Amino acid sequence: MSDEEKQTRSNARKRKYTFWLVLLLVLLLVVFSDSGLYKRFQLELEKTEMIEKIENEMKRKDSLNTRIKRLLYDTTEIERIAREKYGMTKPNEEVIIIEREKK
């Protein structure tokens, strides 16, 4: 082989390695940069978790609003709480306390 052929092969090999190195660097940037795929997947997971939290809080809010409405307008609910929590009774009514056995 002549020196010129060796030089051509050496240059081709260098170009080949350079190409693969550049391709590897581009792939690393696409995957791991601040706007890369890895960050995108992390943000999607965080978004899903936040949506679930929002839905749970909306359900909790609805439940609390229902309870507030019952406490404001439902006299039987108010009476139940007065009896259970504060031990209130109607006139001429006896309270019987039943103690449960501890297991």
Describe the fold and architecture.
By secondary structure, the protein is an all-alpha fold. It has a domain at 54-103. The chain has three helices and no strands. The longest helix is centred in the middle third of the chain and has 37 residues, at 37-73. It is rod-shaped.
Topology diagram in text:
Elements: H1 3-32, H2 37-73, H3 75-86
Main sheet specs: none
Mean residue pLDDT: 88
Give the structural class: mainly alpha
Uncertain residue ranges: none
Strand content: under 5%
Cα gyration radius (Å)? 37 Å
The separation of the N and C termini measures 96 Å
Helix content: over 70%
The number of helical elements comes to: 3
Q: SSE order, as H and E?
A: HHH
